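One record is given unchanged without comment:
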Amino acid sequence: MFNANDAAVIIGAYEHPGRELPDKSLAQIHAEVAIGALADAGLTLDDVDGYFCGHDAPGYGGGWVTMAEYLGLRDLTYMDSTESGGASPIYHVSHAAAAIAAGKCSVALITLAGKPRTGIQPGGGGPARPEDDFETAIFTGAGLVSTYALAARRHMYEFGTTSEQLAEIKVAASKHASHNPNAFLQKVMTVEDVVNSPMVADPLHRADCCVVTDGGGAVVVVSREVARSLDRQPVRIMGQGESAKLTNGGKLDLTYTSAVWSGPRAFEQAGVTPQDVDYVSIYDSFTITVLEILEDLGFCAKGEGGRFVMDGTLVAPHGRLPFNTDGGGLSNNHPGHRGGITKTIEAVRQLRGEANQGVQIPDCEIALVHGNGGDLGTRMRSATMILGRDA
């Protein structure tokens, strides 16, 4: 099996500090995070020969053609606009590593940006899907939150999970966000605060839902040869896994995600187990998303997630499994409703020892990053990536 660690490393990462950006265009945010990540790596736009983006990028060719022109990337030898929603940037890291290993490029730039708070987010259009005529009639009036609420209610029915247990996930995220000066929500919440927040779709309260923010981020993946020429700590790409969960003709079990397939593939390629992981960046569109993913990745048994997250398990720096130490999508940032880029950036910070004071994991050597795209209540795709501190 191909192991990207043999060929490529992450060398640059940057998260836009803004959460409300009414005076910036979407292309401008992409450009600012691109320049920031390249500067972090010690590189410039002139060094880039591979460019990766999702359909959050505005313009022609799935966004990459327009953005490449906007950025002045004149010598590209490899381009990729794979679209997988919030998982897209994690797919892109894996695809960039494979392209570098194949000799297609040597400096790959991955960008993501969004303006759902103060503008319009592209990427939601396109031709009608063949399932729309059937599902629209059934789900009329049911929004995204409602389908995640269905998953939460089913998990509660099957395994006895409680709203208070889901609230523990938000509490941990809020504690971490209080250390992040750029976090959208910086107030530390209690379990009581979460369960007493307004109900959005039973059993999910407002505090169980992610924030809506402008912003973005970028990551730079380079060949080992390029990394050796730079004065920057590289991060190993140890293993990756991709997967999709479909509706199975309507026979859909809402108690698991496609992480049940992407996780084992990533662990096998990396040659590690869940017990070896020091830190996790878990996609947190909703609290139920985190709980099911933790189970599906093997950090606890199916149905045990509610008990697993109790007693400060997820709280940095000394919990059993610290998660989303930037505050995650629940409290910090969810640019363009796509959390994969911020999850990757925070994992890089942890492995470099550059996380915010108060949440840095001591001797963090192995981090897991997981992103979702789509809808837990219908069809979804996942990407799991294992990263390591480079020697």
